[in-house]
Structure formats: C-alpha cells, structure tokens
Amino acid sequence: MEHLIKEAEAFVKDRFKEEVTGHDWLHMERVRKLSFLIWEHERAGDPLYIDLVALLHDVDDDKLASKEHTHTLKDWLINMGVQQDLMQNLLTDTANISYRKGIRSLLSPEALIVQDADRLDAMGAIGIARAFAYGAKSGQMICHKDDLNDRMRDKGSGSTVAHFYDKLLVLKDLMNTKTGREMAEERHEFMQDFLCQFKKEWKE
Ligand code: ADP
Ligand code: NI
C-alpha cells in the first residue's frame, strides 16, 4: 500500500494544483494529518488505508469537476492496477464522505475518521477562510441583510454567512469519533465568536 500512497500523492498534488476554492493540495495534506491524529487516539482501522482515503476523498467531487479532469478516481485506480476489493472499498468510502450526498452507514471505520478530519478542516479559522474562498469562486454574496438573524433569514439565500447556519455550525454534532468531537469544540466556538463580531460590526 505504501507504493500506492506515493502514487496517490503525486496524482492528487497535480490534480489540485490550480484549485483555489479551499480544496487544494494543502486541504488533502491537512485532512491526512488530522485523520492520523484522530487515529492515534482511536486506534480504529488501518492507518495506511486512512491515508489513501484522505488523499483521494475529493478526487470525484462534482463541485470540483473541470473540463481538464475527465478521468475519474475509478479510471486512476484501474490504471494503477489496484485489486478489485481495495478498489471497491476506496470508491464506496470516497463517494460517501461528502456532507451533501454521503451515506454514513456505508463508511468503513477508517472513512469515519477521514470524514471527521474533513469536517474539522471546514471549521475554525481555516474553515472560515475556505468558506469565503469557495463562496467567492461560486459567485455568492458574503452576506445578505437578514442572514444574521437565524429566525428571519431566508433558508435558500445562498450567501457564505448563511452557509455557516446551514452547515458549518451543525458539523460539531455530526462527528463520528470521540476525538473528532473534542477537537471540534474549539473550532466551533471560534466560528461562533467570528459570527458574533461580524454581527456587531454590521450593526455599527
Ligand atoms: P462535502 O463534500 O463534505 O459536502 P463540501 O465539499 O461541500 O463538503 O465543502 C467543502 C468546503 O467547501 C467547506 O470548507 C465548505 O465550507 C465549503 N463550501 C461548500 N459549500 C459552500 C457554500 N455554499 N458556501 C461557502 N462555502 C461552501
Ligand atoms: Ni475534503
């Protein structure tokens, strides 16, 4: 598996080299690191397989699909000569890590750890930076007038501040592992503080 990890590193580094919406190579590196940290506490599953899932988890994300990237993860795995059962496990795990489309019951113990790591990277200071980068690239507003009042806001408003209420502030309660839950606390609080200051400045 070590050899495949090296190949995956090169593949993902190249594939995400021009990514500016927060799904760049450094996101994959952080998810690997966070996954390993969680694994060290939880000791669930094979750390080498965790590393592979962390590296490959965003390859097939349709948000990131571009004209240049016509090859899917499956194409790459076939090209690498990966065994049938490892290939199936990787395809199922990477397809189900996503917040929007994932089915949690299909995830392996290793992928549950990577999902926590991926969510941690969407929270805290880094998560805030990624959300605004993604929002700008997808052409959405920073904030609409009513988005700062959770009761008044239009749920479909689609601003980046609305995305905090729609998704980022619920992540802490969706963590799979005890370690992930603990790590999510500080990042969650930081996002709350950020929104609090944002509201304060908005009203000045
Ligand atoms: P998942 O694949 O788990 O659904 P996403 O790929 O949707 O996760 O999200 C990954 C990153 O993109 C996160 O940092 C998230 O905040 C950001 N993101 C996704 N959708 C939006 C959005 N509508 N506005 C701002 N940021 C977003
Ligand atoms: Ni990701």
TrEMBL record:
Transmembrane regions: none
> What sequence ranges are listed for the domain HD/PDEase?
20-132
User: Carries keyword Hydrolase?
Assistant: yes
UniProt-listed InterPro entries: HD/PDEase_dom (IPR003607)
Check the record and name the Gene3D superfamilies matching this protein: 1.20.58.1910, HD-domain/PDEase-like
Domain of life assignment? Bacteria
- The reply on keyword Hydrolase is yes
Protein name, as recorded: Phosphohydrolase
Identify the species of origin: Pradoshia eiseniae
